[in-house]
Amino acid sequence: MVSESVLDEQDRRLVAALQCDGRVSIEHAAAVLGLSQRTVRSRLRALQDTGVVRVVAVRPRDASAGATMLRVRVLRGRIDAVAAALAARDDVPYLDISHSGDEISAAVRSDPSGRDSLVFRRLPATSAVTAVRAEAVMHVFADSGDWRLDVLTESERADLDFVSTSDSARPVDPVDAAIITSLERDARLPAAAVAAEVHHPESTVRRRLATLRATGQFLTQTFVDPHRLGLRIDANITMQVPPGHLDATGRTLAHHPAVHGAFATTGSLNLHCAVWLPDMEHLYRFVTEDLARLGVERLETFLVGQAVKRPGR
What we know:
Keywords: DNA-binding, Transcription, Transcription regulation. InterPro entries: AsnC-type_HTH_dom, Dimeric_a/b-barrel, Tscrpt_reg_AsnC-like, Tscrpt_reg_AsnC/Lrp_C, WH-like_DNA-bd_sf, WH_DNA-bd_sf. This protein is α+β, with helices and mostly antiparallel strands. The protein contains eleven helices and ten strands. It has helices at residues 9-20, 26-33, 37-49, 79-87, 117-122, 154-160, 174-183, 191-198, 202-214, 243-254, 280-293, and strands at residues 53-58, 67-74, 94-98, 103-109, 129-142, 219-224, 233-240, 259-265, 271-277, 298-309. It has an eight-stranded antiparallel β-barrel. The longest helix is centred in the C-terminal third of the chain and has 14 residues, at 280-293. The radius of gyration is 21 Å and the shape is globular. The two termini are 15 Å apart. The mean pLDDT is 92.
């Protein structure tokens, strides 16, 4: 079992470097972080081998894809069964159980132009479910892949950030698709290992990898348990923002170091954000200071008791 102790500063800075570029070289990470290559290599191996950190390849976010944010009230004693059934669905990438143990918060991939059968028929017909609230996502300001642990300087982050150098993406052929699929399990696989998996010459794989990255055909995402980073409070906050302030407020929250998701939604509570914070006092200050400065007057806070399903976990 992996220890639940908080990672030390060097490990947290290494996690932050991987968030900037999941395929960063040992040499470059060491130079920017001011560590020896031996230290970076051994620490990275330990983080990956123990499962504390996972680095995977993901496809770019599809701006046209629909999603619905769900809040589901469930009878006490039945929530585990309902949560397990929802989490087993491929179209549910996120699912949390509230600290109070009687409510589920989930995201569902859905077609905004149609009536989703899960929302309109299946959940309301479930005897354990007492209420369902559903809001369609209108705009994504930031998702979990955009979040960065706030332990690097701006110059360090700029040196480490991987930026696509071309927007002339060509169609992904079967070889490209096989390469990306291989990296979806471990984005740090060297070209030689990928070549062995896809049964193509290493030179071909190395060249295609460079092209796929340069044109943004895949991104890297680093997953780590926030508790290991000292972030023990996980909360989803929905708030009411005047339409004229919605875009500016969403963009501001997307850059807040505690926010790992920000979405504009339909409904009276039209802005959703997910936060990781060290403790309840930090959550209090986030609500009374950060959100108050943005003019938020009405909100609901869903304190996560169990993160049942998250990408990478």
